[in-house]
Design goal:
The protein is mostly helical. Helix content is about 55%, strand content about 5%. The chain folds into two domains: about 5-185 and about 300-330, Rossmann fold, CATH 3.40.50; about 205-295, Orthogonal Bundle (Tyrosyl-Transfer RNA Synthetase), CATH 1.10.240. The chain has helices at about 20-30, 45-50, 55-75, 90-100, 105-110, 110-120, 125-140, 155-170, 215-225, 240-255, 260-265, 270-295, 300-330; strands at about 5-15, 40-45, 80-85, 145-150, 180. α3 crosses α12 (about 270-295).
Length: about 325
């Protein structure tokens, strides 16, 4: 709790352009929290996590700034939320090192995402990739987060964060808030346009599988026209028809209509007409965001001000926790 408010922390890695899946599954729900006066929200651009995979420095800098602009363009209010670059708050890696010393190898060995990522990056299986759940724990615990919005694939990280916090508190007393999963309005689970059995991912090598938030209208419509469906030829919302189900989920998410309403609108349509209807709805949702993004891109002074002020705000709260941890562990305090 901070300043009498419950706190929440979330963020995205600063690699690539975030997708329609990221937007509908997470970012759009974050925006809805703007009006929650009793929750203090911290949203990170998680650039430290990004370097577990080799990055081109210029691309990393550009994608991190782009992610900040997309946060704001999507509707996150930087006056109501603390939107910060993870690398601008040195307390993150400092606390991660301390927490590494309270985390067991067996716990790290059980983390399934390490195994998945190691398989994808067999030429760069580094220790950062192995221990990044501890850095994620530090991200959460620094801000005494009461809530963390997590999907099913991230629940294991929240559980190890809770385990580490409980272990530390058991030794040193009441230091960390034990975070809970935030169960708000559930975000839409958007699947790949080329393989609707898998989540839409910005790391997908097939450019036709994902919709980027900055794709123009022609690109969006072309990708939907190429979306994988099936050979049945009729529209139904069923797990047996994952391609059609995904298109309807996307349509419902961007229009706020129910599945029944979407099915009624698409009654009698062919697959081509359904794809066009969904594509047009996505364009209508993204064009205002893209226009705000373009305007923000031209206002360097405003964006630099947000970066500086929010780094200071995040550092203030993070350092309060870090100082408490360092004192508990027994580090010598720097004379004033």
């Amino acid at each position: 709790m901070i300043d009498g408010k419950k706190t929440m922390l979330s963020g995205m890695q600063s690699t690539g352009i975030i997708t329609l899946g990221n937007y509908l599954g997470a970012l759009k729900n974050w925006v809805n929290l703007n009006e929650e006066e009793d929750i203090k929200c911290f949203y990170g651009i998680m650039d430290l996590h990004s370097i577990t995979v080799r990055q081109e420095p210029a691309n990393l800098r550009k994608s991190a700034r782009t992610l900040l602009l997309l946060y704001i363009a999507a509707g996150l209010d930087p006056e109501k939320n603390c939107i910060f670059f993870q690398s601008h708050v040195p307390a993150h890696p400092q606390l991660a090192w301390i927490l590494n010393c309270y985390t067991y190898m067996g716990e790290m060995n059980r983390m399934t995402q390490f195994k998945d990522k190691a398989a994808k990056h067999a030429d760069n299986i580094n220790t950062g990739l192995f221990t990044y759940p501890v850095l994620m724990a530090a991200d959460i615990l620094l801000y005494q987060a009461d809530y963390v919005p997590v999907g099913k694939d991230q629940m294991q990280h929240l559980e190890i964060t809770r385990d580490i916090a409980n272990r530390f508190n058991g030794i040193y007393g009441d230091v960390f808030t034990i975070p809970e999963a935030y169960i708000g309005k559930s975000g839409a689970r958007i699947m790949s346009l080329q393989d609707p059995t898998k989540k839409m991912s910005k790391s997908d090598e097939n450019p036709n599988a994902t919709i980027s938030l900055l794709d123009d209208k022609d690109t969006i419509m072309r990708k939907f026209k190429k979306a994988v469906t099936d050979s049945d030829g009729f529209i139904a919302y069923s797990d047996d028809k994952p391609g059609i189900k995904n298109l309807i989920d996307i349509y419902c998410a961007v229009t706020s209509k129910s599945v029944d309403e979407a099915l009624k609108e698409s009654d009698g349509m062919g697959y081509g007409q359904l794809k066009e209807m969904v594509g047009e709805a996505v364009v209508a949702e993204l064009v205002p965001l893209q226009e705000r993004f373009e305007a923000l891109s031209k206002d360097k002074e405003y964006i630099d001000k947000i970066i500086k002020e929010n780094a200071e705000q995040a550092s203030y709260y993070a350092n309060k926790t870090l100082r408490k941890v360092m004192k508990k562990v027994g580090f010598t305090e720097l004379p004033r």
